[in-house]
Design goal:
The strands form 5 sheets. Strands 8, 9, 10, 12 and 14 form a 5-stranded antiparallel β-sheet that branches. The chain has a 4-stranded antiparallel β-sheet with strand order 13-11-15-16, with no helix packed on it. It is of the alpha+beta class and 466 residues long.
């Protein structure tokens, strides 16, 4: 009876295989320049905006305790969540739109994981050196030199990560106040938690996990192919021109050696942040950072060959077909984006900082007063979404001779306050033309006639006798 190899059984049942550490080589070129500019702009926006002032307050501040969300001159309230939902839908459609045109443009240039990873790798190169020196350092036994270099790198990483976490919390707590309270060690538990959590998340994701986040954790890599078509720009290796690959001297004619343009230097693999070989074809791990294009163009220049062995192209271009920019999905995405952006802009520009809700008393449809009038009871909810307090005048219309019974038809409402006002409407039954009649309730600010909302309600009465 044959015996099983225990090592073989253990290997076959393993569900996880550790990946080799990736050491991306530094690269320069057109796309690297644009990627660096993008990193500087995005990091600048993230780190600088919390320090900007606007009308004696922080320009961008999500004040959760006071339920105010300040974005420069605009102030939003929890009741304005609709705008945020529309903004998320616009962001999703924009992602679909740009992906359908230019592939994983977001991943390669704008994704926070990419942006902070680029920054952390730049710091690592400044301290440890480029790829060969990093590999040599990691293979070196631990000694005073290695400990000093590694400790320096991680200290700088942790300082940057801590400032990133501090900045994140600064969007929710006034950042100048936050800085003072950190120095005094007087932060609340949730502020400490989010600073520490966000700091370690940044340090772990950008310093250690890097490409693992893109390959294993990000769902975008899995469903991106659904947004691709034959006219989507992808990074592709020209196999017909490059093969058969092989090394050669610069002055040797590749045709005489029956070789293609690829010299098999593997630099395209060494610069890839996810460690793939683009020469094997398009892979879901590719984040379209274009590093392989820059390094390959540099090699082609040194060899005296034409650029473009690795380049942005489309499947139709590779097959010699014409490309179409105005294809159905692009038109749908573009038109949907335009409509939503214009609609959101118009809604915000014409937004009235006042919200009124009318709730009928459902315990009884109507009452009959001692004087024979038909009475309906309502609860009127007024929300002042302005930065200052207002007094509002309430009035009713829609039925002849309608009377409003209220403690006072002038209501004072502070900024951000929600007032519930009990209200009764009374109508002579002879003025009712139907069992259910629409009435209009108007709420207008006394100091600003532009702040007015007119809401409809139903007034119920008895069936008229003929």
């Amino acid at each position: 009876m044959a015996t099983k190899d225990p090592n073989k059984s253990k290997k076959s049942n393993s569900l996880y295989a550790s990946d080799a550490t990736i050491y991306p080589r530094a690269v320069s070129g057109l796309f690297a320049m644009w990627r660096s500019i993008g990193v500087l702009i995005l990091l600048g926006i993230y780190y600088i905006i919390p320090w900007m002032e606007w009308a004696d307050r922080q320009a961008v501040l999500f004040d959760l305790p006071n339920r105010k969300f300040h974005i420069f001159s605009l102030t939003f309230w929890p009741q304005d969540f609709f705008y945020f939902a529309v903004l998320l839908i616009i962001a999703a459609f924009a992602l679909f739109f740009f992906t359908a045109i230019a592939g994983r443009l977001w991943c390669g240039y704008s994704c926070p994981q990419t942006v902070w990873t680029e920054l952390f790798m730049w710091i690592a190169r400044k301290i440890e050196g480029d790829r060969p020196k990093q590999i040599k350092l990691d293979k070196m036994p631990w000694n005073a030199y290695k400990i000093r270099i590694k400790a320096t790198k991680h200290v700088i990483w942790l300082i940057l990560a801590a400032y990133t976490g501090f900045t994140f919390v600064g969007y929710f707590t006034p950042i100048d106040e936050l800085a003072v309270r950190i120095i005094e060690l007087s932060l609340g538990p949730w502020e400490w938690f989010w600073i520490i959590f966000y700091s370690f998340a940044t340090w772990g994701n950008a310093g250690f996990m890097r490409e693992q986040v893109c390959i294993y954790m990000c769902p975008y890599a899995r469903f991106q192919s659904a947004m691709f078509d034959n006219d989507t720009l992808i990074i592709s290796y020209d196999e017909q021109r490059g093969e058969p690959r092989g090394s050669r001297k610069r002055d040797e004619n590749p045709v005489e050696k029956n070789l293609g343009s690829c010299i098999d230097c593997t630099l395209c693999v060494q610069v890839c942040p996810t460690g793939i070989d683009i020469r094997d074809g398009l892979q879901y791990q590719c984040i379209a950072c274009s590093a392989c294009i820059d390094v390959c163009d540099g090699v082609m220049d040194k060899m005296g060959y034409e650029r473009g062995l690795i380049k942005y192209t489309t499947e139709n271009t590779r097959q010699g077909k014409s490309i179409s920019l105005f294809r159905p999905r692009i038109l749908v995405y573009a038109s949907s984006l335009l409509i939503m952006i214009l609609g959101l802009g118009y809604a915000i520009a014409t937004r009235i900082p006042l919200e009124v809700d009318i709730i009928r008393d459902r315990t009884r449809l109507f009452n009959e007063t001692d004087t024979g009038l038909i009475e309906n009871t309502y609860s009127l909810q007024i929300i002042n979404k302005d930065e200052q307090a207002h007094s509002y005048t309430i009035s009713a219309s829609g039925i002849n001779g309608i009377k409003m019974r209220i403690k006072s038809n002038i209501i004072e409402v502070a900024s951000g306050e929600v007032r519930d006002i009990p209200l009764r409407l009374q109508v002579d039954p002879y003025d009712l033309k139907a069992r259910s009649t629409e009435v209009m309730l108007s709420v207008i600010a006394n100091d600003n006639p532009d702040i007015e909302i007119v809401e409809a309600a139903r007034f119920l009465g008895p069936t008229r006798q003929r």
